[in-house]
Design a protein that fits this description.
By secondary structure, this protein is of the alpha/beta class. It is built from eight helices and seven strands, in the order E-H-E-H-E-H-E-H-E-H-E-H-H-E-H.
Length: 263
């Protein structure tokens, strides 16, 4: 029995070549969905798609920049050309820029780059996804990725926090406006997810020790933890949930400040 209801569905995952993106592509595919992995780095997208095909699913890769409207339109059209429908749109593209500057000292260019990556990319993709879903006439699900920085003060990453806060509000509005079309819009908030090669939080050993001290559940967040929440929102298990937010952080947001170095 297809409890998740994802068999035969079609999903687009932007940022599909990253660690969370790859885990999401693979998990959606394992649940029976056909998936288009989209990334600015084609090699990473192709690897994610290859991993997904190993589950027996139909998964493809595409190079595109989620900040560029023309690229987004090409991605949606590619999915429609291959599968004839779009049921799930996942926007994972984003990234925080840590700075020693106070909020009042951050330059316009720094604001614009961060907002373009973390807000406008998801706005543009959500718009294209929703139009395709409405034309298709079937229920759909859009999932956006926010951050604890959008839920509380974010010294040192004010533009990122502001962009993610705006994305949360945007997604709430999408939920209200798209509800009559049977399209849901929800938010996943990951925290403390190490990226391969990243020096954030130190080495892998240092990150693990920091997590043991600051995360109630005692470990870093795995990409699969976040992918699980995304797939839950994509699935029929949450078919009457929209405008909702799930935090994947092992409880850290309940007890600790935004700066992971402060216990």
């Amino acid at each position: 029995m297809d409890v998740l209801g994802l068999g035969g569905k079609v999903a687009i995952v932007t940022g599909g070549g990253g660690n969370i993106g790859t885990a999401t592509v693979k998990m959606l595919a394992a649940a029976g969905a056909s998936v288009l992995a989209v990334d600015i780095d084609l090699a990473r997208a192709e690897q994610a798609a290859a991993d997904a095909r190993a589950t027996g699913a139909d998964a493809r890769a595409m190079e595109a920049d989620a900040r560029v409207v023309g690229d987004i339109d090409r991605v949606v059209q590619a999915a429609l050309d291959r599968w004839g429908r779009l049921d799930v749109g996942v926007n994972i593209v984003g990234g925080g820029i840590t700075s020693d500057k106070a909020a009042i000292d951050l330059l316009d260019a720094e604001w614009e780059t961060t907002i373009d990556t973390n807000l406008y990319s998801a706005v543009r993709c959500s718009r294209a996804f929703a139009h395709a879903m409405i034309r298709g006439g079937s229920p759909g699900s859009i999932i956006n990725i926010a951050s604890p920085a959008g839920l509380r003060a974010a010294p040192g990453m004010v533009a990122y926090g502001a962009a993610k806060a705006a994305l949360i509000n945007f997604t709430w509005t999408l939920a209200v406006e798209l509800g009559p079309h049977g399209i849901r819009a929800n938010i996943v908030v990951p925290a403390f997810v190490p990226n391969p090669g990243s020096t954030w939080g130190g080495s892998a050993e240092q990150q693990a020790e920091l997590a043991r001290r600051t995360v109630p559940m005692g470990r870093v967040t795995l990409a699969e933890d976040v992918a699980g929440a995304i797939v839950a929102f994509a699935s029929d298990l949450t078919s009457y949930s929209t405008g909702q937010l799930v935090v994947c952080d092992g409880g850290r947001l309940l007890t600790n400040p935004i700066n992971p170095g402060v216990s």
